[in-house]
Design goal:
- This protein has 13 helices and 15 strands.
- By secondary structure, it is of the alpha+beta class.
- It has a six-stranded antiparallel sheet with strand order 1-2-3-4-6-5, with helices on one face. A three-stranded antiparallel sheet has the order 7-9-10, covered by helices on one side. Strands 8-11 form a two-stranded antiparallel ribbon.
- The longest helix has 20 residues, at about 115-135.
Amino acid sequence: MKRRLNVYTKGQKITLGPSIAKGGEGEIFAVLDHPQILAKIYHEGMAESRERKVNELLDEKYQELSTFSAKPISALHDARGAFLGFLMPNHTDSHPIFELFSPGSRRLQFPKANYKFLVRVAANLSRAVAAVHATGAAIGDINSNGLLVKSDARLVLIDVDSFQLSRSDPMLRCTVGVPEYTPPRLQGVNFREMARTEDDDLFGLAVMLFQLLFLGRHPFSGSYIHGEKTIPVSIAESRYVYSIKGASEMLRPRGMELVDLAPSYLREAFESAFLAQSNDSRPSAVSWVETLLRLEKSLVPCRSIRSHYFFDADKICPCGGSWSATQAMHCWTTCRTQLLQGQILRYKPGGPNPLKFGVSSSRLLQLQQHARFLCFSRHFGSLELAWYCMRGQVGVERLPPTRSFRPIFNKLRTIILPKYIDGGSR
């Protein structure tokens, strides 16, 4: 790239700095003496096919995209006037959105992020998609590599030059896509031959929102009861793993109880997004903004760790947080202890069931006797945690290694709970 060290924009010479990133279409460079901008130079043979779309994006009608994206600022040419690429804002202070999916990467890149932060990012993502649709464009290639997040939850769409510009004549299509974020109707098709719609974007948006809110899990990732299915195949067959209707014939991954704790309006929105019966029937980006604002307002701080938020509707801490597994389990047991301690002991036939996990009232009365025994341990809340462990949701190696806790846990898992939960009627 040394032969293109000097490029030109509007007649002004620009000196390229070191390469920052390289992709299938081109390479990103720093711009000397202008740290606030970057330059994208297309690979040989690709610039000519991209020139018209870049010039179209520079039109005033796409100015709104600047708020949420790395939209081209100006075109770049060589000394002879041949198109090379474009200048765009520098957002290297951001991180890819997939860094928020798992607690491990979240702890490194977003150490102050909690569940409320995730909801806010999700709302900002929905706003960004709504802003794109307001211009008449479609993103087309929504995926976790094309979104950057700043420390204040603001969001940046990148690869804007791949957007579909529907108002152009002829239409400038998006010719790429990632199957895991592609709706059923577009699975296996040639993107160069298919026009994208806003509804197609809304499917990819819903997948991204689900991953943000539910530990990075893909909503179509699970175990098919009759064999193996890839995520794209599951999408094509509309096998949404967490469907309220429960007709996907897919088994959930372990540890995904957080989905069941979500408010009903949120689960219904995902149901509509993933099991839409016709095109244009998915929740719009604006609708998602309203849903997520409602969710954010409903979150309440954890009683144990004030920086941690959880769903108000169920009064149960989801322990999504950004801590280690041990810290998360501690927070879970602490919150559950405050809710369950005394409730089991005070339970009377006909009263509200404090467990809500399919345990009948008769078996709950029997469980009371063992609850009294567990009161001798400061790990009383582990009763609930042991239930999950017995179900294979939480491994014993993830629990606090205290001497007094392990014998109680083993007794619960191997003797007591199987008798009262797995045995007999419920």
